[in-house]
Amino acid sequence: MPHAYHSTLLSSLAWLDHAFQPAGEPPPPESIMNRQRHTANVLLSSEALPVKSHEADGLIATDSRPVAVYTADCLPVLIADVRQKQVAAVHAGLNGALKGVLIQAIHRLCERGATPDSLYLAVGPAIGPCCYELGEDRIAAMRQENPHDLRPLLAYSMQQYRNPLAIRAQAIGTTQGVWFDLPLLAKRMAMRAGVPEAQIELSGICTYCMAEEQASYRRNGHFQHGYQQRYAWIRQR
Ligand SMILES: [Zn+2]
């Protein structure tokens, strides 16, 4: 049975618990979740009940019940605010990230008394630049539309990065496109919002070539072996 991944940064904060769980393992029973739709909507957990009744992709906890997101290549981001002792969970796939869900989560935390330098972000396992190919038309559209002025933060390479930590074959390019680095985009977005670099941790785990077999939506698209959601959650103690 694969183990959950824990962020070193968040583990250093004694007032919270968190985990990035392997595929198929259910979240803690009291967890609050949204119906995720790649939106920029961020709710307080008190606004989000009953569980999965709202379409949103970010959740800020208002009590000690865990807030959770589910992913299968998209980026799970767990956030702690050490000033007000708030926690948040964000589902940021590429579309949600471009719509601004992470920006909105940081903004909403700051409305509630956080400051950018009081935030700690753990960016969990997601499809990495070693396996995430995007067509050139997609990149061109992103650059043209430039949502939230993100163009200077887009991170991609024409050459596929060979991942020395891969435990299975990396994705094979099919579109002569680019290799996109979604975790790095998230990091750059948080830094632009004022979060210190030392308070942002990337897991470095690619769901396609490094995590358990069921972890990747895209890999399932290539091999039809099935996939299961991975849950990431965080709670105040
Ligand atoms: Zn990979």
UniProtKB/TrEMBL annotation:
Nucleotidyltransferase is among the record's keywords: no
Family matches, as SUPFAM superfamilies: CNF1/YfiH-like putative cysteine hydrolases
Pfam family, one: Cu-oxidase_4
Record's keyword annotation contains Metal-binding: yes
Ranges annotated as spanning the membrane: none
Signal peptide: none
Keywords, alphabetical: Metal-binding, Transferase, Zinc
InterPro entries: Cu_polyphenol_OxRdtase, Cu_polyphenol_OxRdtase_sf, Cytotoxic_necrot_fac-like_cat
Catalytic activity: adenosine + H2O + H(+) = inosine + NH4(+); inosine + phosphate = alpha-D-ribose 1-phosphate + hypoxanthine; adenosine + phosphate = alpha-D-ribose 1-phosphate + adenine; S-methyl-5'-thioadenosine + phosphate = 5-(methylsulfanyl)-alpha-D-ribose 1-phosphate + adenine
UniProt family annotation: Belongs to the purine nucleoside phosphorylase YfiH/LACC1 family.
Protein name from the UniProt record: Polyphenol oxidase family protein
Source organism of the structure: Erwinia aeris
